[in-house]
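Suppose a colleague, Dr. K., hands you the sequence of a protein chain of 260 amino acids and asks what its three-dimensional shape might be. Before reaching for any lab equipment, you can write down a predicted structure in token form. Begin with the sequence itself:
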Amino acid sequence: MPIFRALAVTLVTLATFAAPATAQAAPPTAPAGFVALSDVAPSILQDMRYATRHNFVGRRIDGYLEPTCILTRQAAEGLRQVQSRLRKKGYTLKVYDCYRPQRAVDHFVRWAKDLADEKMKAEFYPNVAKDRLFEDGYIAEKSGHSRGSTMDLTVVKLPPRLQRPYFPGEPLVPCFAPKDQRFPDNMVDMGTGYDCFDPLAHTDNPAITGTARQNRDLLRTAMIAAGFHNLPEEWWHYTLDGEPFPDTYFDFPVSHRSLR
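The predicted structure, expressed as tokens, is then:
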């Protein structure tokens, strides 16, 4: 081998071993002001559905690395006030979803466009054609949850009953079926299950009467008193008044590591 060629090969080999490894991009982290709800109000129950397969998509949603509720500190402290009031009446809050990364919202959008995937339709949207989910407002490209001060929640009677896990592939029952027939959530009767894509889930739907109406009003009254407002189309959906990040949609993963 000519000497100049041997020298070139040697230099390339040395450069290869000397080159630093390509840096891995660190996952985005939460800005100051976000907290784990369990650190602020540990007695609030958590049933984080999007970290599981029991949701309208039927699989764990992108960005949910842990089944934990993350919120802005102001929203978490507001829920602590609500919890204090409800516990005196013999109830506890239970959250289904809190901060939601933008990548999760994007997952919902991709799923909604796949009209062939309807494996959870029988429970969550039995009366709604999937091609109407955008038009009817059930799915959108942005969510207030991504701003960190919106949560989905319900009320559970104390002491809470044991709630069995969801078994993938089990027979599905419409979310608006009588409470003793649909999935055995340990919440009080709210007239529908969580994430029910149906007009019966509208907070003030006049068809919801009796105990279910009283329970919806119990939740709403307690939340309004602590500075939250309800989304009229979803009895479980509340946002903090004067939220600290009204125009920012975050995308850090749902994980305790994001809070470091």
